[in-house]
Design brief:
Elements lengths: L1 H22 L20 H5 L6 H10 L1 H6 L3 E6 L5 H10 L4 H14 L11 E4 L4 H7 L3 H13 L8 E3 L11 H8 L3 E3 L9 E9 L3 H10 L6 E9 L9
Parallel strand pairs: 1-6, 2-5, 5-6
Antiparallel strand pairs: 3-4
Helix pairs in contact: 5-6, 6-8
This protein binds zinc ion.
Zinc ion binds next to helix 2.
Length: about 250
């Protein structure tokens, strides 16, 4: 009875998974309590307690970035980022510890919850801030690309990871001052595959906006595309110049 084997196997897998969960329960990244079956990475309570940015606070990010101010680039972020807080427990696992599925999950949350301008949802392309190929090989993925894929699954905007490339493997930005960071990323990015981007509305996507020097450098680069319109969207933003490397 061949057909009996499949349900039997399914039952065995389910029992195995239940036992696995019993001995190694999936835990919330923030409070470390076991997750419900329907929860992923973060429990509902912790997720709703993450510090969200209001539309006003999100808009004020535009004032922080010289290029955004000069070109009236609409800027939005979902959460406020502060080191040593619950947000660090969200960002570190996908930025440094291989949890790219969490980046995708957070991308979906950006699309569902951010106080974005209406025209964000009708943009032509999402472009992730690229990481150097060397770093991508080491990490196995670009976290901003997975944020884009999550956003794309809700807003149905195609992702273009091929639009920009990162030329130089910059040292960690963590201990650098604002001016040093700006110098550090100057000329780092180049346009790559942009044949069909002329006249398009592009949303640049990154994980955490700190001084904004990296994303400004990307925007500067994209402005070489004729008649392009740029917006900026990040998962989180520091409310002042904070510390975070790429
Ligand atoms: Zn929790």
């Amino acid at each position: 009875m061949k057909t009996m084997k499949i349900p039997a196997l399914e039952i065995m897998i389910r029992i195995f998974n239940d036992l696995l969960t019993l001995f190694f329960p999936r835990a919330c990244l923030v409070c470390l309590m076991p997750l419900e079956e329907t929860e992923q990475n973060v429990c509902l309570e912790c997720f709703y307690n993450l510090p969200r940015l209001s539309r006003y606070a999100s808009d004020s990010l535009q004032q922080r970035l010289a290029i955004a101010k000069a070109h009236e680039i609409k800027t939005a972020a979902l959460f406020r980022y502060m080191p040593d807080t619950n947000m660090q427990n969200i960002v570190y696992p996908f930025k440094y510890h291989g949890n790219y599925k969490l980046a995708y999950q957070m991308g979906r949350q950006i699309a569902i919850s951010v106080h974005a301008h209406e025209d964000f949802k009708t943009a032509d392309y999402l472009v992730p801030v690229p990481i150097h190929p060397k770093r991508k090989r080491k990490r196995g993925y670009n976290q901003s690309e997975h944020l884009c894929l999550g956003i794309s699954s809700v807003w149905k905007i195609p992702v273009r990871p091929d639009a920009l490339k990162r030329n130089v493997h910059t040292k960690s930005q963590t201990k650098k001052l604002r001016d040093e960071r700006e110098q550090n990323v100057k000329g780092v990015f180049d346009l790559d595959n942009i044949d069909d981007l002329k006249g398009c509305h592009i949303i640049l996507v990154d994980d955490v906006l700190t001084t904004g020097s990296t994303i400004s450098s990307c925007a500067q680069c994209l402005f070489n595309i004729p008649d392009v319109k740029i917006s900026i969207l990040t998962l989180a933003a520091t409310t002042q110049s904070g510390k975070m490397n790429n």
